[in-house]
Specification:
The protein has 5 domains: 2-35, no CATH class; 60-81 and 336-408, conserved putative lor/sdh protein from methanococcus maripaludis s2 fold (Beta Barrel); 101-131 and 219-250, OB fold (Dihydrolipoamide Acetyltransferase, E2P) (Beta Barrel); 134-216, Orthogonal Bundle (Helix Hairpins), CATH 1.10.287; 257-335, Beta Barrel (Elongation Factor Tu (Ef-tu), domain 3). Helices cover 27% and strands 36% of the residues. The chain is built from 8 helices and 22 strands. The strands form 5 sheets. A 6-stranded antiparallel β-barrel has the order 3-12-15-14-13-16. A 4-stranded antiparallel β-sheet has the order 1-19-18-17, covered by helices on one side. The protein has a 4-stranded antiparallel β-sheet with strand order 4-11-9-6, with no helix packed on it. A hairpin with a 6-residue loop joins strand 14 and strand 15 (307-314). The chain is elongated and about 125 Å long. The relative contact order is 0.17.
């Protein structure tokens, strides 16, 4: 009633006096005096406040397509995958020992022609050098003499056998012819084997009866392997062969396949086995290729205390050059996973692993349960289903936006 009886000026003056001389006045008295002036309306008086913006739903980050593009956020549909664990080791590209050969001579002689230079390609069986050798000439002569003697004795043996069959000649004569033929045949075979050892092919040996005597000293040196010449050891006119002389003329390498020498520590060695896939990369060009482990050394290196592991790498374009240092990844495990996401898609929100699921209004926060992981991916055991779309790149931007919205509230 007092509030209704007091006029407005009196109420204002009374409020001023109370604030000045009675600062500890009860709130009831202050309300009576100030309310009399009609300055404010208590909650529930029937008046409606102006409508503000609709509050954001909890756990939702609203972004337009333009904002998503500017933020560099990329999405992907999740699904099944394979969880792989990799072992990172250093490596060096080296020529394959199975595809490396040294072109050498097996007799003494003089180099009279070199047909290949460094870097030249050579086919298997191609002549790369010519050699003059007295030993070759003598061996060819011994073989031809033994061959002629064996052929003559074979004719006599066949004649004596025919006479013995008709009982025209004695058995003793037949047996002597047979023994002589067998003896000469053994000598012929020995002379042939000597020529084969010295490097003559069967076709060259068969062609000797028709070869001019002036070429008896000449020997053709052929490549046992197709590839490229990587080293030349002699010059024209050089004496080669035994007795402390150079025996190697060239080194040839087939680079269609190369080896990768890997150094694996003893602690990681139990994870490595033959047949595992190895991915190699170069830091300079960031190029990569895949190979397989073909050899695991049983002995540790005395200096590095690491085991030698060799992987074979296809190199049809000869792009991988021996001597190149590479970084290698050995896939030590590979398991199928029902729901697999990239590691960078997982963010920690309120202490829980969380992903941002794409919805019509933006991205919804979704706590998930993670399982096993590897170098790049994480298994999701609960919270996501295959086919859902989540942010996989720059998801930390969404986390920042979520934190900004929470701070404003």
């Amino acid at each position: 009633m007092l509030r209704r009886l007091l006029p407005v000026p009196l109420a204002v003056a009374g409020g001023f006096l109370i604030a000045t001389w009675w600062p500890s006045a009860p709130d009831a008295v202050r309300s009576l005096l100030t309310g009399a002036g009609g300055g404010s309306m208590p909650r529930g008086s029937g008046q409606t406040a102006a409508a503000g913006p609709e509050p954001e739903k909890p756990g939702l980050v609203r972004l337009t397509d333009t904002q998503v593009a500017k933020s560099g956020i990329r999405t992907a549909s999740i699904g099944e995958g394979r969880l792989s664990r990799h072992l990172h080791v250093p490596g060096t590209i080296v020529p394959s020992a199975n595809l490396t050969a040294r072109i050498a001579v097996k007799t003494t002689g003089t180099v009279v022609e070199l047909r290949k230079g460094l870097g030249d390609r050579v086919a298997k069986g191609e002549v790369v050098a010519l050699l003059d050798s007295r030993e070759i000439a003598d061996s060819k002569g011994e073989y031809l003499a033994a061959r002629v003697s064996a052929e003559l004795q074979k004719t006599l043996y066949e004649r004596d056998k025919a006479l013995w069959d008709k009982r025209i000649s004695s058995e003793q004569q037949y047996l002597r012819s047979q023994a002589s033929y067998q003896d000469l045949k053994v000598k012929e075979d020995a002379a042939r084997r000597k020529l084969t050892f010295l490097g003559l092919s069967p076709a060259e040996i068969e062609a000797l009866p028709n070869q001019p005597e002036a070429q008896f000293e000449r020997q053709e040196i052929r490549s046992p392997l197709g590839g490229r010449i990587v080293e030349r050891r002699v010059d024209l006119g050089a004496a080669v062969g035994r007795d402390n002389l150079e025996t190697e003329l060239y080194s040839v390498v087939d680079l269609s396949k190369v080896w990768v020498d890997l150094a694996v520590t003893p602690g990681d060695l139990p994870l490595v086995r033959e047949g595992q896939i190895v991915t190699v990369r170069t830091q300079a060009t960031d190029e990569q290729a895949e190979g397989r482990i073909v050899f695991i050394g049983p002995v540790l290196d005395q200096n590095t205390r690491a085991a030698r592991v060799v992987a074979e790498l296809p190199n049809p374009d000869e792009h991988w050059r021996p001597g190149t240092f590479v970084a290698a990844e050995i896939a030590v495990s590979d398991k199928p996973i029902r729901v697999l996401v990239r590691s960078e898609a997982i963010q920690t929100v309120d202490g829980k692993p969380t992903v941002f699921v794409e919805v019509d209004a933006g991205f919804a926060v979704r706590p998930v349960t993670v399982g096993r992981s590897d170098d790049r991916s994480v298994e999701i055991t609960a919270g996501l289903e295959p086919g859902e779309t989540i942010a996989v790149v720059n998801s930390f931007t969404l986390k920042a936006e979520l934190g900004k919205a929470a701070a404003e509230d």
